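ENTRY TYPE: protein
CONTENTS: sequence, structure tokens:
***
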Amino acid sequence: MKNILIIGILVFSLCSCNTFLKEYSQGLARVETVSDLDELLLGAAYHQKAYYYQLNYVPYAEGTPLNIFVHFMSDELRQNDASNYGDTQGAMESMFGYFTWQRDVGINPLGTSIGAEGTDWTKIYGYINVVNMVIDELKEVDAMTDEEAADKIRIEGEAYFLRALYYFQLVNLYAKPYTPSEAATTTGIPLKLTSYIEDKEYTCSSVAAVYEQIIRDLERAESCLLETPRKSVYRADINATYLLMSRAYLYMQDYPNAKKYAQLVLDRNNYLTDLRTFDGTDNVFTADNGEVLFSMGGHLLSNYMYGTDDTPENYPFYVSEDLANAFAPDDLRKRLYICETPGYGYTYKKIYWGQAHYGSPCTVSDNFLFRTSEAYLNLAEAAAFDNDEATARQMLGELQAKRFNTAPTITASSNDLIDLIREERQRELCLEGHRWFDLRRYMACEAYPWTKTITHPYTEFSDMTWEPSRRRVFELPPNDEAYTLAFPREVLDFQSSLNTNNRPDRLPVSSEEFEE
């Protein structure tokens, strides 16, 4: 238990108030059995369940979000520009820096203060630290029974999966997207793979090196989890591992491997929810849905998309017109994934905080949700780029057959087929944390690059009347440096050895003042 005892007493610090590898209390010194390690992994390495709900018109949030800001940087959401009356949680202001692509994402709308920027960075590296400790301590803990021996293998597999998932998130937030011809020389993020304290200044590994580590970890997870029964939808298994491998290879533009691992998912589970028979009385996706392979965390995005009562004019954010217009009129997802309220716009319904909005917590994540539908889309995209358009059309057709009353006939080829796949990803995976990452990687796609200009109007409101006082319009042009987040200020202030990136200051393209 030497490593855990030492790390339970000492603190490795990357910055002053926010630690790179967070202290996990003297309690870690009590880890002595396989069961202890299992509990440590579940309680301190998996992101915990979280949800938002209302009870008697009073809002409550259980748990904390993780990387929820990814939903606000893409083209999926728009701000309520009429009133902030229902924004009692301060969602508009807390997301301002992300929503308008500011260099300092913690800045307030007036530009007078900058809040914490490294909360989620610190949390993820803390999870990675626990994973590293679990991996090391598994070598020291003896299995007393066959069941414990099997548990050791499962715990090891889950630990390597989690480390891969966390580094995948970090490298796609704080480094440029993977470009095969440039990844080896592109600055990535710090890699920490040991559980012990190292007296050194940290530097960034290349984007290629980070992805190589992700793949190594997933291959180790695969070898451990291949014959391990699924323990829970909230614990990683072989299907989640294969899906993350497919995703990582797709981002790397390694289409044969992306295709291979997506097919391995579907060979084991090809279930798709049939929206033609779904009654729409609750969340489309729950922990009991056959499409759901893995979920971690919860659904606090609802906190930003619903107000303190049931009137839609009080919601802080809505589904954007970009997203709403992506659905054809006969697409069942336009009614079941999003919901139009005449006069106010579209709200989110696919995964939200509960039927009738009272006390029914969502059981799956808004940012760490693995579904079989992604495997269909990963396989379609990889096949299309790998000169197998017949398979690409087949995968799209099978997905759309469960999403339309009468599915459209797919005849597209070449870049038109790629466009269709990208559009289908926008629709099917909306507000699950994919869109920002997809927009980034489309820019770096060597075979067929694509980007767009995203426009986000941001409105400020009177403290007395909740009516608009100023509206500014911000734009994110194609290939902008703001597609990569700057390292948090709290990190850079205390680690001069880490490089930052070139995320620019962001000024509005237009501004309008309103009389009070």
Observations:
- The chain has 18 helices and eleven strands.
- Residues 386 and 502 are 34 Å apart (CA to CA).
- Residues 1-27, 355-359 have pLDDT under 50 and may be disordered.
